[in-house]
Amino acid sequence: DTIVEDEPISVPIHRGTWHPKNYTGEYLGPIPMREAVTHSINTVAVRVALEAGLESVIHVARRLGISGDMEAVPSIALGSTEASLLEMTTAYAHLAANGAIVYPYGILKIETNGGDVIYERNVSRSGRVLSGGVIGMMNGMLMNVVTDGTGRRAQIGRPVAGKTGTTSDYRDAWFIGYTPDLVTGVWVGNDDNAAMKKVTGGN
Length: 203
Fold this sequence. Notes:
Distance between the termini: 28 Å
Oligomer: single chain
Order of helices and strands: EEEEHHHHEEHEEE
Low-confidence stretches: none
Strand order of the largest sheet: 7-8-9
């Protein structure tokens, strides 16, 4: 419920000034953080990242399983760092798991033809990466994304939280949604990294 400013912003960068814009080209003025997340307001994301500190943004991303190279630049707030769909889905899985650490895996069990178990994954979760207070706030905001915001097409008749994402040149569009027992990530893009025809994560 913190009030944040959605207005034009100029950010000094090493080669001049960066002016991030909202997808709609409109600015709503002072709004609650919940509304900014619900409608994917870029200017607010950049302001919050700068206020929190770019190194802190990277630290939290690492805690949630993002392993790629990350630069402490303002555009990191809008996804300028490359991450795989598996990493992004895992990051959101920590919210579905109530803050418990999550490790992605591909094999649950291997059995012989006779039914002997050769391997079975140990699903123990030791440690937490997010506190209960953070989980509650994030789940509330991300449920609003699906009920009232950019993720409305993900409504499935039960409570769902999630987030859309679209790169500024339409090369990537994704949606990651979750319930307490299932997390799903969807990415759309061209194999040659060419821009799509205005495909967004909300589509």
